[in-house]
Design goal:
The structure holds three protein chains of three kinds. Chain A is built from eleven helices and no strands. Chain A is mostly helical. Chain A has one domain: Orthogonal Bundle (MetI-like fold).
Chain lengths: 302, 322, 577
């Protein structure tokens, strides 16, 4: 993994990213991933529209259908049924897809940006900054993420999605940073960087103009893979009861199902959130693997 | 080599020290206090303060920190706030249960993953390859507790093949069963969490092995072997697979350590009395010494596993020198 | 995939984020922006509660109450916190506006005094609402010295009326506990306070068909006990196990010198022989012990053991039992079976706490005490002492504890009360035939799995969630028992802060709370709305005539009433439709 030495056709006029987009259209993995992702994107968009039908009943947090007694199965009014106090499960599921999308993408954007920047600087400047940053990365990688997050959640006493977002971003950057650094180390020795140095271009400019575009494909790969990690870890936290109680996420739906004792009684309550978590993270990972095949030439077909 | 090992050991010690210091600090800035859990309506204020004093919580943080480090060096993690038992004995007891489950699981999923990964890398581009990659990926990204619940529902609740969780059947153990019966009972409880684990984990090894194998197949010596006219099977097993195993060895050591930490969700679902569940429960009860101890032990295991992986790697791959 | 497609996806994301923001715009309310009599606009407030995992009912109550309060323009949000953080915030930092909390668990509701008295408003005190009312303080401290039970009851009613009128805390609901047992294995369960798993019930049940092979009683519990040391543990789950071994305990365990009859609140002698003789003038009391009670090792339980226990707790200042021994000046063992207590002051705690207290064996504990004295912190040592083999005089002996899996207790065939007919108050009696040979406490990680285990026959009895009611009702093998919980949820206000210091404000928001909604929706009928601070299940002490604050009213009527009260007290609104 240390040198994803992609050798896309550099002679072509098209930019690297454009080439990747073109190749991506041909990958089964990416097509499947994007297809699933779009379904969930649609769900996220549907959420506010669905609530507007009748906010008193369909609001995922406070809406209650008073005509329902106990948890009931799917019906025309409630496509996925209701929970034990008459809240619509479908609207909770839609809200969950919003939370998962926003949280997953934000975490991966922040942590990949952070990781790429740190990796580039550490790799390019080397010496003390490299040692310090990489040891910090090592320390963060050493500590198991889920237990650490549980402890941190306990520390804050109250939980919000913003805190989860920050912590996840902070714990996910080292993986990206390490790989980008390795890549930068090998790029640094290339002739075109050497010549740039000789011609007196500033270091920052070299990093931004010459190094960054070359490591971007790898950053893209980590961008998608981190989304998977973020979604799964957030769901795990919520499931264990350390999620944001003022909102509704898929992990939280499962947790409510668990604390209310409906796990083996109400499949319409238990199956959808878990399936959604798995499918969405699956779709992002598929895209990631598809990208890896394009970016890493050694995985190309014989 | 010797210098490298010494360097790594120093690095491990420093990392370990930083991690336990961070854990210590995290708990002291907590907006909560463990004694709040022992408060009962019949307790007076004076009694509450006595309890705080017992836990050493009335000392300044710096003093608490020095005491904490001093005890740490002597291998004393203190006593659990909740049960008063020495933390070390609780952790050892739970760790053993976790290792029993997760190590078996990692080894099994490793073997399965490698076997399939090797086969599908050879059949690059075929439908079987796509199917297995997608299958492996699907399970790898499946939400752990959900899969666990589904398995419990189908195999334990509906089909009644396996127990609903736990590690042993108390009814059998209270009448002093023979060793064989004990092992059978343990095995019976082990199967379902084990299957869940393996199903969740084999995907990652499968992908790793496949990628590593594909990379190896591009190497010159494979081409040379082909040119020499060696049989495909020989190339696959003798030349390619052996070299492709290198990165997997590292992954194996690391994943053993991570599986111990990642056991939280599986243990919660299957009522397995392991270290992961202990961390969750202890965090909810603000049982600092126990969480600190558990973290220290897990961190140590992860560090040592990484270290062992590095050493193993350098022995296996002659190209790497330190 | 083309760039155009990418732009499409990006636009969809942008749109969905926009929609998210739109979805969070609050609905317009009839009353907006409450303005206090002082002329200031009411600052945003938080209603604190526990996380769904810690207590789903409390969590959901807060969400709905916040929604109702918003209807009259109160800027409130419900905020869930971890239990430890919440306790620290409300009890210690006192930095909150209003919180949901729970109260109860005591047969004699002494919390009526310490929850509301001004003397408890110090840093760690119990009166976290900081409620100040000199008249109430006088009444409540007098109440604690009233030994005449009828007068004491009347006085308790008066106290409850004051609280119900001033509303420093608003009682909400008290849930009905559901316990199911397998009726093909054990019969003759007793349903009383504590449910079918209570001490009395375990001692009285009989195996179905008299089959001796079935004589293991299997009980499923959720939390593994912390420690089998009665001086150290403060957890009710642990007590359900160890009150089968020890006599007495922290909270009115039914196995001490005396026990409290549920309906009438009177003392019934258990280990004691006959009634307690209290000398009003000298402030001393004489208690006689039954003869022939034996510890598990066969030695006699005598007055010396009880004297030893009290001296030990006094000497080591064991925090959990401080209330029990504080009022005792001196204790004498007149002979092997007679005790004389010299009290420092007149206080009903002597009846309700000292008489219910734990009894330890002198022979075993004097060794531990000696070890403890040599230690740096004797109190810590003695309360965290790891007891391998608990020694009591109860109906069961400790047999085995496999950590993480089970605890096994074995019958004590020499139990003094075996085949004893026990009066349980209001004329009823109970025969302790002690047919259970072994009790197996099995630990489960979730109530879900425990319920399934009960259904599968892996355990004989456990409490079940409301969700499983239908299944269990349909199952002929299962009998469901409902019993009232001696705890009630309430909202506590920070009475030192405006506008929560205004009784009119508190009264108005009380009218906005639809307790019947909680009972019907959150608990599906398995709860009781509470109007008094003392749960209604505590029949003797709870005042049935407390004001109900609009039971059965519609939300419209409630809002009207609340607005009327607030207007009268000088509150206004920014906008009013």
């Amino acid at each position: 993994m240390e040198t994803l030495n992609y050798t896309l056709d550099k002679t072509e006029k098209k930019s690297l990213i454009r080439q990747i987009w073109d190749l991506a259209g041909r990958s089964t993995f990416i097509k499947l991933g994007v297809f699933i992702m779009l379904i969930f994107g649609g769900m996220a968009v549907l959420s506010p529209i669905w609530i507007q039908i009748n906010p008193a009943i369909y609001d995922p947090i406070i809406g209650v259908d008073l005509s329902v007694n106990g948890s009931v199965g799917p019906s025309f009014k409630h496509p996925l049924g209701t929970d034990d106090i008459g809240k619509d499960l479908f609207s909770q599921l839609l809200r969950g897809s919003q939370v998962a999308f926003i949280l997953g993408i934000m975490v991966s954007l922040i942590s990949t940006t952070l990781g790429t920047t740190i990796g580039l600087f550490a790799g390019y400047y080397g010496k003390i900054s490299d040692t310090l940053l990489m040891r910090l990365a090592d320390i963060i990688l050493t500590v198991p993420i889920l237990p650490l997050l549980i402890v941190i959640s306990g520390i804050f006493g109250t939980q919000s999605n913003w805190i989860i977002l920050l912590i996840l971003s902070f714990t996910f950057w080292p993986v990206t940073a390490r790989v980008i650094r390795a890549q930068t180390l090998s790029l640094r020795e290339r002739p075109f960087i050497e010549s740039a140095k000789v011609s007196g271009i500033s270091n920052t400019r070299i990093i931004v103009k010459h190094l960054a575009p070359n490591v971007l494909p790898i950053a893209f790969y980590y961008l998608t893979v981190t989304v998977t990690g973020a979604i799964l870890v957030e769901a795990g936290l919520s499931f264990l009861g350390f999620g944001d109680p003022s909102n509704m996420s898929w992990g939280m739906m499962l947790q409510w199902c668990f604390v209310k004792g409906y796990v083996f009684k109400a499949p319409y309550w238990m199956i959808p959130p878990g399936l959604c978590i798995s499918l969405l993270s699956f779709s992002f990972y598929l895209i990631g693997v598809g990208l890896e095949e394009i970016v890493n030439p050694r995985l190309k077909k014989r | 080599m010797g210098k490298y090992i010494i360097g790594r050991i120093v690095q491990i010690i420093i990392t370990f020290f930083i991690v336990i210091s961070i854990i210590f600090l995290m708990f002291r800035v907590m907006p909560s206090d463990p004694s709040s859990f022992l408060l009962t309506p019949s307790m007076t204020a004076e009694a509450k303060q006595t309890i705080r004093k017992q836990f050493g919580l009335d000392e300044p943080i710096a003093v608490q920190y020095v005491i904490y480090l001093k005890n740490f060096i002597h291998g004393d993690f203190g006593n659990s706030f909740y049960s008063g038992r020495p933390v070390m004995s609780i952790i050892m007891e739970k760790m053993l249960n976790t290792i029993f489950l997760s190590t078996t699981a990692v080894i099994l999923s490793y073997l399965i993953g490698i076997f399939i990964g090797k086969a599908i890398a050879w059949k690059r581009g075929s439908k079987a390859e796509k199917f297995f990659v997608i299958l492996g990926l699907w399970f790898y990204t499946t939400f752990t507790p959900w899969l666990g619940i589904m398995f419990l529902w189908i195999f334990a609740f509906k089909l009644k093949w396996f127990p609903l969780g736990g590690m042993i059947t108390p009814e059998k153990w209270i009448f002093d069963p023979s060793l064989f019966e004990k092992i059978c009972d343990l095995g019976h409880h082990l199967i379902l969490p084990l299957i869940t684990y393996v199903v969740l984990w084999f995907g990652s090894y499968l992908l790793l092995m496949r990628n590593s194998m594909l990379e190896t197949l591009k190497e010159d010596y494979i081409l040379t072997a082909r040119a020499k006219g060696l049989k495909e099977k020989v190339i696959k097993n003798r030349h390619a697979a052996r070299n492709a195993m290198l990165p997997i060895v590292t992954a194996f050591a690391i994943s053993i350590s991570f599986s111990i930490a990642g056991a939280v969700l599986i243990e919660t679902i299957f009522s397995w009395p392991g270290i992961g569940r202990t961390i969750v429960e202890a965090t909810l009860r603000q049982d600092y010494p126990l969480v600190q101890g558990a973290f220290a032990v897990i961190t140590m295991v992860v560090l040592l596993a990484n270290f062992a992986a590095d050493i193993a790697y350098s022995y296996l791959d002659p190209r790497i020198t330190y | 995939m083309k760039l155009r497609q990418f732009i499409c996806i990006a636009m969809i994301f942008a749109f969905s984020m926009l929609c998210t923001i739109l979805g969070h715009i609050p609905q317009a309310q009839a009353y907006q922006g409450l303005i206090l009599p002082s002329g200031e606009k009411m600052a945003p407030m938080e209603l604190l509660t526990l996380t769904p995992g810690a207590d789903p009912t409390l969590n959901q109550e807060a969400v709905f109450i916040a929604e109702w309060w918003k209807k009259i323009g109160i800027p409130v949000t419900a905020k869930a916190m971890e239990k430890g953080a919440l306790v620290k915030k409300i009890f210690w930092a006192r930095d909150y506006d209003a919180t949901i909390w729970y109260l109860g668990g005591e047969r004699f509701p002494s919390y009526m005094q310490y929850y509301f008295s001004e003397a408890e408003i110090y840093e760690y005190g119990w009166n976290f609402m900081q409620y100040k009312n000199p008249k109430y303080d006088k009444l409540s401290s007098d109440w604690l010295t009233l030994l005449d039970r009828t007068k004491a009851q009347q006085s308790a009613f008066n106290l409850q009326k004051i609280i119900a009128d001033e509303n420093p805390q608003i009682p909400l609901i008290s849930d009905t506990q559901l316990t199911a047992y397998n009726n093909t294995r054990w019969k003759n369960w007793i349903n009383q306070y504590g449910g079918p798993q209570s001490f009395d019930s375990i001692c009285a049940i009989d195996p179905v068909g008299g089959d001796t092979a079935k004589d293991i009683l299997k009980i499923g519990i959720l939390k593994e006990p912390d420690i089998l040391n009665p001086l150290g543990t403060g957890f009710s789950d642990t007590w359900t196990i160890i009150n089968n071994i020890y006599n007495g305990g922290m909270w009115n365990q039914p196995t001490a010198l005396y026990r409290i009859a549920p309906g009438s609140g009177e003392l019934i002698p258990f280990l004691a022989d006959g009634e307690l003789k209290y000398d009003n003038a000298a402030n001393t009391a004489i208690v006689k012990l039954k003869k022939g009670i034996k510890w598990h090792d066969g030695t006699k339980l005598t007055a010396a053991d009880i004297k030893f226990t009290i001296d030990l707790i006094k000497e080591f200042k064991v925090p959990n039992y401080k209330d029990c021994v504080d009022i005792i000046d001196k204790i004498e063992a007149l002979d092997d079976y007679t005790l004389k207590y010299h009290l420092t002051k007149k206080n009903v705690n002597f009846y309700n706490k000292t008489m219910m207290m734990i009894i330890l064996q002198k022979q075993k504990w004097s060794v531990i005490a000696k070890e403890a004295k040599a230690k740096e912190d004797p109190t810590k040592y003695i309360s965290q002492y790891q007891i391998k083999n608990p020694m009591g005089a109860g109906p069961f002996k400790f047999a085995d504890w496999k950590k993480g899996s089970y605890i096994l207790l074995e019958k004590n065939s020499d139990w003094f009360f075996k085949d004893y007919t026990m009066p349980i108050g209001t004329g009823g009696t109970l025969k302790f035939d002690l047919k259970v040979d072994k009790i197996l406490f099995k630990f489960y990680a979730s109530s879900e799995l425990r319920t399934l285990a009960l259904k599968n026959g892996d355990i004989d009895v456990c409490s079940i969630p409301i969700a499983s009611m239908d299944d269990f009702k349909a199952d002929k093998k299962m009998t469901i028992v409902e019993w009232g919980n001696d705890w009630t949820d309430f909202i506590g206000f920070n009475c030192s802060k405006a506008p929560f210091n205004d009784p009119a404000f508190r009264k108005a928001v009380h009218y906005l709370i639809d307790k019947d909604f909680f009972v019907e929706k959150l608990q599906q009928g398995y709860a009781v709305p509470q109007h008094s601070v003392i749960p209604a299940v505590n029949q003797f002490w709870s005042d049935p005539k407390c004001p109900t604050y609009g039971a059965g009213w519609s939300m419209k009527k409630r809002i009207k009433k609340a607005v009327k009260i607030l207007k009268k007290a000088g509150y206004t609104w920014e906008s009013e439709n």
